[in-house]
């Protein structure tokens, strides 16, 4: 299991050989992509940054400014998904709020195409600007817990492990994702699905307030009473409106001993496994979170599985599941045990930086039935690409209790989310893998209820973005018009302001 330190040491300009402006750009700015000092403007044209400009930036922040000539450039620009090879003109690593403010001001003054990097886990590489500037929040991590009021104050560059490590040992928890090195910044502005979402809702449902640096340089508190339009938009609208420097997240009392569940069946049972999952979806308590589908292992074994977790004792989980599992016949493998939730939150971590490229297709279903189970099984069992999956994850529970317009995320009637993900280590295998995911999703999509989770999207069209936000789209445009009318924040699942061409 990978462990991450909650309070990373502050990065110092002086501690990084060759990555500092003083060593490199004072003589030249030898970008791999172009000429000295060249960067992309947010509007797409090339701009030139002088050595003096870059030195000013270097002087204004405590972290390093990393240029393409730096020895650590390739390491720092690397994102979780190795399919992404974005080459920024500069990366400003920010230790403090003042650093973020100064870097953002610089980016605005020069109108540079700008990405905000938190955990760097976005599948589409939105956390690293290709040719532009990246404001790297990853050194800006930390969580403070107010146990009395059950609130966590989370810095905008934190990862999920920071949040879990600060809360779970105190007997409190919130709901976030299933891989501990995912960034809070991207996840908690998307929706934030995780093991406890059926009990406590999406992460956005538990964001009680945020502090946001808006492109006009203001640092605003947004919650239900102040700047409530911004608060509404940030919960689901991603990084469209500014940089979230702090999330205030609701916590709950929690017994960290939970039951982890996994059954593996022969692939011939795929349709029955989907049907069983759908049946279980109607009866399980909110404390149980299940998903299931067809998966091909790295070694090429295709099986189907049903698994998840239950926030309660194993005997209770068995009592709920046994009658359904018996009908499916003997599993190839069964694993059910009581585990520590903090440990469970790291179980799917894999490598900090994935070795295989990843591509997703996904969508929501507000209705599932036997016909869907059979058709999906038909596609899923054609899947023999190592690492790939065709899955349904149970939603509903507390996630469905908010109104469609309570946050930017509208698909509150979802009962299951469909996902198919493919992975390849050899770039020559990319097209075939992507085609499998695209073809599968094209066949399954008409059975769904429309919309998808924006954080799983890869290069969505404008029509897709409208579909993702449905009737909330127009209100998001209003918020965008108010806080980012120039669409400076565009490296995200982009809500275009009404004045955009
Ligand atoms: C291994 C893995 C596991 C995952 N598991 C889950 C899961 O269990 N549940 C789930 O819901 N999702 C999950 N995801 C999807 C995840 O929510 C998205 O990939 C998300 O974009 C990751 O956020 P990040 O901060 O790591 O990304 P980054 O690449 O750093 O940033 C992604 C986007 O978020 C914006 N952003 C980041 N920080 C901020 C900030 N502070 N303020 C404003 N905007 C910001 C950026 O501008 C960018 O557009 C997973 C992804 C991976 C790769």
Short characterization:
With 501 residues, the protein is an alpha+beta fold.
Tag the structure with descriptive keywords:
single chain, 501 residues, alpha+beta, Uridine Diphospho-n-acetylenolpyruvylglucosamine Reductase, domain 2, Uridine Diphospho-n-acetylenolpyruvylglucosamine Reductase, domain 3, Vanillyl-alcohol Oxidase, Chain A, domain 3, 3 domains, 7-stranded antiparallel sheet, 5-stranded antiparallel sheet, 23% strand, globular, disordered N terminus, binds flavin-adenine dinucleotide
What's the CATH C level of the largest domain? Alpha Beta
Put simply, the count of helices is 14
In helices, the fraction of residues equals 25-40%
Average residue pLDDT: 92
The total domain count is 3
CATH architecture level-2 label of the largest domain? 3-Layer(aba) Sandwich
Which range does the strand content fall in? 15-25%
């Amino acid at each position: 299991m990978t462990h991450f330190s909650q309070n990373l040491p502050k990065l110092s300009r002086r501690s990084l050989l060759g990555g500092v402006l003083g060593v490199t750009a004072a003589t030249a700015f030898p970008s791999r992509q172009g000429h000295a000092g060249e960067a992309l403007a947010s509007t797409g044209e090339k701009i030139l940054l002088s050595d003096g400009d870059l030195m000013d930036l270097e002087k204004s922040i405590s972290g390093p400014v990393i240029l393409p000539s730096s020895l650590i450039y390739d390491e720092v620009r690397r994102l979780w998904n190795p399919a992404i090879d974005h080459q920024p003109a500069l990366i400003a690593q920010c230790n403090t709020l003042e650093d973020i403010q100064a870097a953002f001001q610089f980016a605005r003054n020069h109108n540079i195409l700008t990405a905000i990097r938190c955990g760097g886990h976005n599948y589409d590489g939105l956390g690293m600007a290709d040719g532009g500037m990246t404001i790297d929040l990853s050194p800006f991590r930390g969580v403070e817990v107010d146990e009395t009021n059950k609130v966590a104050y989370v810095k905008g560059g934190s990862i999920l492990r920071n949040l879990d490590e600060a809360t779970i040992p105190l007997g409190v928890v919130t709901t976030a994702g299933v891989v501990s090195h995912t960034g809070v910044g991207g996840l908690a502005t998307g929706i934030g699905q995780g093991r406890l979402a059926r009990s406590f809702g999406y992460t956005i449902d538990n964001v009680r307030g945020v502090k946001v640096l808006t492109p006009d340089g203001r640092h605003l508190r947004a919650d239900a009473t102040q700047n409530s339009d911004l608060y509404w938009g940030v919960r689901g609208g991603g990084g469209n409106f500014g940089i979230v420097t702090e999330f205030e997240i609701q916590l709950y009392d929690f017994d960290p001993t939970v039951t982890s569940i996994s059954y593996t069946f022969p692939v011939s049972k795929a349709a029955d496994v989907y049907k069983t999952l759908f049946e279980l979806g109607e009866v399980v308590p909110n404390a149980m979170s299940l998903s299931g589908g067809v998966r091909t292992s790295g070694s090429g074994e295709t099986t189907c599985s049903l698994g998840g977790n239950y926030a309660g004792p194993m005997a209770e989980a068995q009592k709920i599941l046994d009658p359904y599992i018996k009908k499916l016949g003997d599993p190839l493998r069964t694993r059910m045990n009581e585990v520590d939730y903090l440990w469970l939150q790291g179980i799917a971590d894999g490598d900090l930086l994935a070795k295989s490229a990843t591509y997703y297709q996904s969508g929501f279903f507000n209705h599932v039935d036997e016909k869907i189970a059979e058709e999906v099984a038909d596609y899923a069992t054609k899947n023999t690409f190592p690492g790939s999956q065709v899955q349904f994850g149970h939603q509903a529970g507390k996630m469905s209790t908010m109104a469609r317009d309570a946050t930017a995320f509208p698909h509150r009637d979802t009962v299951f989310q469909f996902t198919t993900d493919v992975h390849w280590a050899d770039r020559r295998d990319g097209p075939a893998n992507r085609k499998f995911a695209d073809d599968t999703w094209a066949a399954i999509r008409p059975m769904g209820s429309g919309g998808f989770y924006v954080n799983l999207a890869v290069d969505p069209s404008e029509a897709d973005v409208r579909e993702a936000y449905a009737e909330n789209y127009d209100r998001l445009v209003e918020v965008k018009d108010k806080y980012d009318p120039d669409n400076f924040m565009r490296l995200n699942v982009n809500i275009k302001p009404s004045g955009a061409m």
